[in-house]
Amino acid sequence: MQQDLRGGGGTGGGALSYPPEQLFQEVAYLAYYFHWSHSEMMDMTHTERLRWVAELARINRTLNEPSDSDSFD
Question: In the chain, how many domains are there?
Answer without folding.
Answer: 1
